[in-house]
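notes to self, project folder thing:

trying the whole complex as one job this time. last attempt i did each chain seperately and stitching them together was a nightmare. two parts in total, labels are on each line so i dont mix them up again. if this works i'll redo the older ones the same way
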Amino acid sequence: MNPLLLADITVFVLGLLVGFEVISKVPATLHTPLMSGANAIHGVVLVGVMLLAATATTVTGYVVVFVAAAFAAMNVAGGYVVTDRMLAMFRTRQENRQ
Amino acid sequence: MNAFDSTVHLIYLACAASFVVGLHLMNAPATARRGNQVSATGMTVAVLTTVAVLVHGGHLAAWAVAALAAGTAGGAVAGLLAARRVQMTAMPQLVSLFNAVGGGAAALIALGDAVAHAGDLDRLPLQTTTTTVLDLVIGGVTLSGSLVASGKLAGRVPGRPIIVPGGRWINILLGLTAAGLAGWFLTGGAGIAALVGIGVLALAAGVLLTLPIGGADMPVVISLLNACTGTAVAMAGFVLGSDVLIIAGALVGAAGAILTKLMADAMNRSITAIVAGGYGTGDEVAVAAAGPAAPVRRVTAEDAALQLSYARKVVIVPGYGLAAAQAQYEVAALARALSERGVDVSYGIHPVAGRMPGHMNVLLAEADVPYPLLKDLDEINPEFPGTDVVLVVGANDVTNPAARRPGNPVSGMPILDVDKARSVIVIKRSLGHGYAGIDNELYSLPVTAMLFADARQGLGAILAGVREYAA
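result (full assembly):
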């Protein structure tokens, strides 16, 4: 196996473990914003689409880039905004009175 | 590696770290919003850095720039509008939709990368071609599966399980065909056509896998699809050799996996049984009223108001029926009126009270319920023995004491121990069954009184009564 692939696999496995560790501490109260926030994080696929755009040279390639960019941008922009909207509603009693 | 590349690499690393820190801050309501902002900042930096990389690289085709810019602008506007306008009750279908497009983008990266290397596909290393196939399969299944799930949640696709005749065989056939095409592609004989075929098969499989799953199992399904998108994005990272995609994808995969497990446990169902499908009714609990197995005690709204007004400690147990009746504001108003009388009010929330993990908490937060009052299963169960009145609104199976006995459909399911309180008032339209399809033994217990009414009207009548005592 080539060393680049091994490094990628290492990063992937450690990422999974860090994810398990961090996310298992999130209380049930916040599970919806957690899922929506995690959803926004996989919007990083937009970076992948941008890197792909650098290699596109054919009409098929441009079409794929266009659709993928639309998908990814919708994911990332919508995901963060809707998560923020939800989290802004979680207040304590004192904050509600203000 | 030159200075520019190293800097870029380090910036991407910092962005990945910000995603981890952002998720970490989500472990408490007080810091969660900041966590999301940290994560969003990291994302913005990652995108801007990539712009710098593209400009620095310099060999972008004008059409590629146009396609990228137009797509990004259109997608971002659509996403922002949807995020601003969505009702909190419709959150599960929106999250599913965002999940679908994320998976779709990951699958298209696999396809696009292969298109870009169309001339020398047979010279790509096996690690790239393998992850290309995996990315396409997982991303494709997620795209169509999440769209069907989103349609079911929004009521555009019937929520009841739709059984395709011979569906399991069709799935096996799809799987074998896809595996054949993948083998052909990996051994270098096929090219783009095989990939397109795999993509189409993955889309079909996503639809066929999601259609037979009942509406009540949706919290598990959307968690599972979320995990799939994470994995697809990580695969896209392998294809492009991008660490930030791999890390972000792994984090999301882990989040989805944890939520899937938690939801399946809370519903007393195995993940394999849910994916096999065919269980559960359609949407909200509207099964025809079955004849009562045992006599129940009725209570009027006035009596319920009296009981609640003079209680010391009240726990409200909301279920999906509350959200279906859009009664979260009524329940919050009632709780506030009781608190003003000095009654100690809190909410006991079962993990599956809603259509996605934690959904009920968001609905109550929207109705200005302070989050310290929202208590989960482990937190509220020890409090029931000291509770004067439990008010159950729109929840059914999750309160059935039969779960503690073996030998019935809810056996072993984690429940809210409402029957241990001094008295229980259940607001319900009829004695209909929940998803498990069995009588709720809670209703015929001596401590329980039934208020037969629509959630909204019932709560309104009780609130009017409570206000009278306050006057």
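what i see at first glance: Chain B touches chain A through 120 residues (CB under 8 Å).
need to look closer tmrw
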